[in-house]
TrEMBL record, chain B:
Residues 69-265, 349-543 form the ABC transmembrane type-1 domain. Its main location: membrane. Belongs to the binding-protein-dependent transport system permease family. It comes from Streptomyces cynarae. This is Iron ABC transporter permease.
Amino acid sequence: MVTLSACGSSGSASGNGSGDSKTVTLVSHDSWAASKSVIAAFEKESGYTVKVLKDGDAGQAVNKAILTKDNPQGDVFFGVDNTLLSRALDNGLFQPYEAKGLDQVGTPYQLDAGKHRVTPIDYGDICVNYDKKYFADHKLTPPASFDDLVKPEYKNLLVTENASTSSPGLGFLLGTAAKYGDGGWPDYWKKLKANGVKVVDGWEQAYNQEFSGSAGGKKAKGDRPLVVSYASSPPAEVVYADPRPKTAPTGVATGTCFRQIEFAGLLSNAHNTKGGKAFLDFLISRRFQEDMPLNMFVYPVVGGAKVPAEFTAYGPAAKDPETMTPTKIAANRDQWVKSWTSLVLK
Amino acid sequence: MDVARTEVTPRGRGNAARLGLMALPVAFFAVFFAYPVAAIVARGLKADGVWRLGRVMDVLAEPDMRHVLWFTTWQALVSTALTLLIALPGAYVFARYDFPGRHVLRAVVTVPFVLPTVVVGTAFLALVGRGGLLDDLWGVRLDTTVWAILLAHVFFNYAVVVRTVGGLWAQLDPRQEEAARVLGASRLTAWRTVTLPALAPAVAAAALMVFLFTFTSFGVVQILGGPTFSTLEVEIYRQTSEIFDLSTAAVLTIVQFAAVGAILGVHAWTVRRRESALKLVDPSRTARRPRGAAQWALLGAVLATVALLLVLPLAVLVQRSLDAPGFAYYKALTRSDDSTFLVPPVDAIVNSLQYAVAATLIAVLIGSLAAAALARRDAGRLVRGFDALLMLPLGVSAVTVGFGFLIALDEPPLDLRGSWILVPLAQALVGAPFVVRTMLPVLRAVDERLREAAAVLGASPWRVWREVDLPIVRRALLIAAGFAFAVSLGEFGATVFIARPDNPTLPVAVARLLARPGDLNYGQAMALSTILMVVCAVALGVLERLRTDRTGEF
């Protein structure tokens, strides 16, 4: 089993299995998912065996990868998003590789275009979701934009996540900062607070406990019909219901979205660089891109990749989401989260 | 020649045997606990090869951090007081009253203690949160108030008091109190002068254990506290995992380490005092049917408390797992779709059992060796100090240990990051202290003269252990193993950092399911939680049958 190439100075990797040039090891976060058949097809064509290591939530996985970058646990890292991209790049987590087929990926997603240290793989939108039944019962139009959320008719309806501990929470804060500007967002949040926004620590509590529109929230008798979640949450409510309902029980306030783009990259000290490169090519192949949406509830970045019907029917991507460059996020994140904490939580 | 002579004196032989027994436990804790923790703390406090100890003062000077420290301490104090207040009557009733279902109930109240908070936190919320029982009855909602945290701490630690204090209470000879009454003491005076002094060290020990667990509370505070409450443990997690400020995390780890060390120091001292000779009797002789209205009322009150505070949250979990026609959530557990997101969740049960068996073997080996060394009469001060040190893993942040594993155990001969053994090793760190606590009092009770007699007759130390100690401690060993097993099954904090994706444990699978939207995911999480709960309850129920008169703290 031990090949010559693995016997050299990189002997320390043998215990991880990634020193074996026939194995390519992917390090990712807990949400990583792919169809077995698609991975099997890659293994068959490339001759590599894929090993996956899920390393906690997105932030944790990135931090762990940085901690172990001198002796990484794998070859490819998938799952660093635009809010954490600078942290990864500044710490030299990745080595450059221009993946085959990158020209098929739309330019808005190419945030490291010239250097190719990371390859965009998917995107998703963090948006306010609403409970359709609540708004129908109360004969109220669901909010559509950030501006709507501070209106009196939506008082005490919204629950969001702690921006310092939750990535949708942070995304929503960044969305308001992108919308109202560096100086304007604190005012907006003051209004949101006055309008009774509730903050809980994580997405699970917000979505499964507080939100009245989700399956979990209904059981927990959640009483907040508005929640910060993802644009893809409504399709998930359909796909993971048995029997499937005809329409999604929840909808998306399309004017409240912040775009999250996820990247993958070849780890700096990868033991199997060749395999890692092949795997990156695979991640932006049409086969993987079209398999991805129903597994991870994200959208493909490759032009022309088909999006499943559930997505187009129940969770169309926002047309004009808020965005922000990773450098700007990196420069402001800590300060903003600090101000946000004292403004909203104290 | 002198050297050779000292070696054959009993004392010299004792030293050698003691060191032999201690070698493995010491090595185990050094390699899998002290070294990784030191490595991650050093990473945080050392920049370019220079120690930045000034960070300690900087961090401690921050108002936010002082607030965290203050909240951590006072909530632990109040939680401990509340737990004692609510659980001491329970300890008495379980120890002294004989009623149908007593043993089953004793197992049931222990279930929360070994369940992961990620599982129960959600159910507990259903009790004190919106639409929960309190809300329905009196319109009282406690979620995101400190009361939710405090009550949950009672929920999780009730068993510590019932087991530690109740265990001793059951063995106190009631005739001593009766004798005092015959001599004219009032009921209260008799209790105050006879029973209370005998119980005090056990109460102190239980209080310190509860304080330790609540001081380092993580899941409860995260789930029930909302974003406004933060303990040291939560803050260490936040700084390490989210903000990636390793130097602040390192400082907080040191602070927590110092506090926990102090708690354990006091604990070791009370433990030693408790083991002072009390006249103990068989608990089956001290328990009797309640008599008179007052005793029945007390029993009723305790049972009502247990039903409301402990059984109800667990029942909510079960009810939610059944909240679909035809056991749909349970059936879905065996289904494996084409996705690699999860192995069929039912596989997590098998993984968990396998890990827990391995962890139990390790914990029992390490724990009983340590207990054997500590139990020796000739154990020196240094060894006795180790008693407290063995408890440290219970008080140190799982995220610290987990991140420490990542950077410390990555090179041969300790390249274990990719190995399955890492999970049972981490679980054994948590299980071993319970083995020590269970075994130690029993081993100490073995008459030293038996061992000496066997040794004089020429038996090897191994033979002495097999012929003298083992028959006496066999049951305690089984109980220790069972408890380590249940604790390993429920261990979440450290496991979540190292469990491999292809074989998640039950708690990890539950957490992953809870992290996805959709009815089936939520329902499956509840179903898996229920299964975990039942497995733990069965393990603990078996232990109840095995319990003997002297079986340590747990």
